[in-house]
Design brief:
The complex is a heterodimer of chains A (270) and B (228). Chain A is an alpha/beta fold. Helices cover 40% and strands 22% of the residues of chain A. Chain A contains ten helices and ten strands. In chain A, the strands form two sheets. Chain A has a five-stranded mixed sheet, sandwiched between helices. In chain A, strand 1 (30-36), helix 2 (40-54) and strand 2 (57-63) form a beta-alpha-beta unit. Chain B has one domain (3-219): MetI-like (MetI-like fold, Orthogonal Bundle). Chain B is 75% helix and 0% strand. In chain B, helix 1 runs parallel beside helix 5 (90-114), helix 5 runs antiparallel to helix 9 (163-169) and helix 6 (118-126) packs across helix 7 (131-142). The chains are: A alpha/beta (270), B mainly alpha (228). Chain A binds chain B through residues 64, 66-67, 135, 137, 140, 142-143, 167-171, 175, 178-179, 182-185, and chain B through 62, 65-66, 68-71, 85, 87-88, 166-168, 170-172, 184-185, 188-190.
């Protein structure tokens, strides 16, 4: 008797849960976002605030923009792409995989010359012309926007040929960061957002701290933007997410003041 | 194919050959010990040899980067010995490949050694063959098929290695840009024609080598020695 009633109550509970989740699904949706590796940390913060504000759940997949392009063309189930460049979203629009009117620049990347050793990098980046290092890490300039910008900086400084033997190339900016973080490369061109994300997390969940003067770990030179073409990062709604209200809401939220605050706090320009 | 691609081919051939050689030298005594030991710890040693199979290659590469880095124990050792640091060098790739391909060489050898009956070795001993002699003139010839399989697998696995070399190599032309990394580079840059050429070359080459080796590895005089 006792057993039976227990079973019945479990069943009722299960049905209630099912009904509940159906009701929730009607109100709030899922949005699946492909996000460039350099923007993964700020996006996680923005997604959390977005879910708290709207009830929509956000699934984040971070990786290389070029790989996302191939996956989206092959029918990957992403609602939107936050790319590391502006050419990939443009190409997706031109090829009919994305909604042209939704495309906008959500951030401009900032490049830093970073070392995991404090005091190693001076504030003018003069260390680049010294012989105090054996390896300089960059992202693959053929495929990664931050790598391309790094090569532009070396050419602008007239150091590209001299430093060619010292270059070690990561397949992405994330790998370039690992080379420097583990000390195997004394120096590397990485994204400012990565160095900020590697620092201590802010105490309050919404506590957005301004860009620090010096890195929490090591030393850096914030490369003047005059030395390379801007690293324009575009977001675009994909065909899969065209009729997903949660995706539209997230795209709008990316332009809101709380989101912009997080984007600035990770060192991105407008 | 471009000169850069040929350089990657040459580098890969050098890496795979050297790695296989080192693995046979290191792996043969290791496999012999594993096959013959009566130690309680045999399962532990066997498990340790299989460990490189467990970690995803890029993760294994990341930990090698930490171990061989300036703060890592291996990195500090190589620096103290005046050898410099291993990441981003050809020597580093060899060390990483030896670790990565170890189970592929040790396990076939171990199985081949385990298949040799104890009595055969005892018979050799009664004919006054010394332990080393027993190993070289009895065990090793009997384990020949295992030896060939081990060498083929070690070589092929190193040629196809990607995650580990990607992590600790740094994609340096003529030094650490091996075939798999060059191929991946072409795919990422959407240079598909160049990628197809390298991939097709790799597949055809591997097929030829494997067919040749497996043909050589067939038991000789199989017809005459077959049990009636």
């Amino acid at each position: 008797m006792l057993d039976f009633s227990k079973k019945a109550s479990v069943r009722t509970l299960a049905m209630l849960c099912l009904a509940g989740s159906c009701a929730a699904a009607a109100r709030a949706g899922d949005v699946h976002v492909a996000v460039a590796a350099n923007f993964a940390a700020p996006m996680a913060r923005i997604a959390e605030a977005f879910t708290a504000a709207t009830g929509h759940a956000v699934k984040l997949s971070s990786g290389a923009t070029g790989k996302f392009y191939a996956q989206i063309v092959a029918g990957a189930p992403f609602d939107m792409l936050l790319a590391a460049d502006d050419t990939t979203p443009g190409r997706l629009v031109a090829e009919g995989h994305a909604v042209g009117s939704s495309r906008f620049t959500y951030a401009t990347g900032r490049l830093v010359l970073w070392s995991a050793t404090p005091g190693f990098v001076d504030e003018q980046g003069a260390v680049l012309a010294s012989d105090r290092f054996a390896h300089l890490a960059i992202a693959n300039p053929k495929v990664a926007p931050y790598g391309r910008a790094a090569m532009e900086v070396l050419r602008a400084l007239g150091l590209a040929d001299a430093l060619a033997p010292k270059l070690v190339t990561g397949e992405s900016i994330a790998q370039a960061f690992q080379f420097v973080a583990t000390g195997n490369a004394e120096l590397g061109f990485v994204a400012l957002s990565q160095v900020i994300a590697a620092g201590p997390a802010p105490k309050a969940p919404d506590g957005v701290t301004p860009v620090p003067d010096r890195p929490a770990v090591g030393s850096w030179w914030r490369v003047p933007e005059s030395l390379h073409a801007p690293i324009v990062q575009d977001a675009v709604l994909l065909k899969v997410g065209e009729h997903n209200p949660a995706a539209a809401a997230l795209l709008a939220y990316l332009k809101s003041a709380p989101a912009l605050k997080v984007i600035r706090a990770f060192g991105y320009g407008p | 194919m471009t000169a850069a691609d040929w350089s990657a081919v040459r580098l890969t051939a050098e890496l795979a050959s050297l790695t296989t050689l080192v693995l046979l030298i290191v792996g043969t005594p290791l496999a012999w010990r594993l096959a013959r030991t009566r130690s309680r710890f045999k399962p532990l040693w066997a498990a340790l040899v299989a460990m490189p199979l467990v970690l995803p290659p890029t993760v294994l590469g990341f930990y090698l980067l930490l171990l061989m880095g300036p703060q890592g124990p291996v990195g500090q050792l190589t620096q103290t010995l005046g050898l410099g640091r291993l990441p981003f060098s050809f020597a580093g790739l060899v060390v990483a490949s030896v670790i990565y391909s170890l189970p592929f060489v040790v396990q076939p050898l171990q199985q081949a050694f385990e298949a040799i009956p104890e009595r055969t070795l005892e018979a050799a001993a009664t004919l006054r063959a010394a332990p080393l002699d027993r190993f070289f003139s009895v065990a090793l010839p009997l384990a020949r098929p295992g030896l060939v399989t081990a060498a083929v697998l070690g070589f092929a696995h190193t040629v196809g290695e990607f995650g580990v070399v990607l992590m600790i190599g740094g994609n340096i032309p003529d030094r650490t840009r091996v075939l798999s990394v060059a191929l991946y580079d072409h795919v990422e840059a959407m240079e598909f024609a160049a990628a197809h050429r390298l991939a097709a070359g790799m597949v055809v080459f591997a097929l030829l080598v494997l067919v040749a080796l497996y043909a050589l590895n067939r038991p000789r005089h199989a017809g005459r020695e077959a049990p009636r």
